[in-house]
Amino acid sequence: MPATVLREDGSQLNSERRLGLIGFGGIAAEAARIAAGSGMRVIAWNRTPKSATGVEFVNLDALLGQSDVISLHLLLKR
């Protein structure tokens, strides 16, 4: 686990946060890369199986329960 990094005001940086991505296409992959680069752990759910380096794919219930931040990357259909 990465070390906890604190700001001068005592607040915590991203090193212990977990980003949950719902839907995993090109934009979500880029969001995962940026989040991982800032020290966040990344988990994702996609309706079809995928794999990506540094991303743990989990079921939707696990993602909703374990994420500190959730980002939606889904098609909008009417």
Q: Characteristics of this structure?
A:
alpha/beta; four-stranded parallel β-sheet; 2 helices
What is the approximate shape?
Answer: elongated
Spatial separation of the terminal alpha carbons? 42 Å
Largest sheet: 4 strands, parallel
Q: Outline the low-pLDDT stretches.
A: none
Tell me what portion of residues adopts beta-strand conformation: 15-25%
Gyration radius from CA atoms, angstroms: 13 Å
Class derived from helix and strand content:
alpha/beta
Output the strand order for the largest sheet.
3-2-1-4
Oligomer: single chain
In words, what does this structure look like?
The relative contact order is 0.25. Helix content is 24%, strand content 22%. A 4-stranded parallel beta sheet has the order 3-2-1-4, with helices on both faces. Strand 1 (18-22), helix 1 (26-37) and strand 2 form a beta-alpha-beta unit. The protein is of the alpha/beta class and 78 residues long.
Compact summary:
This protein is α/β, with parallel strands linked by helices.
Produce the secondary structure layout:
Blueprint lengths: L17 E5 L3 H12 L3 E5 L9 E3 L2 H7 L2 E4 L6
Parallel strand pairs: 1-2, 1-4, 2-3
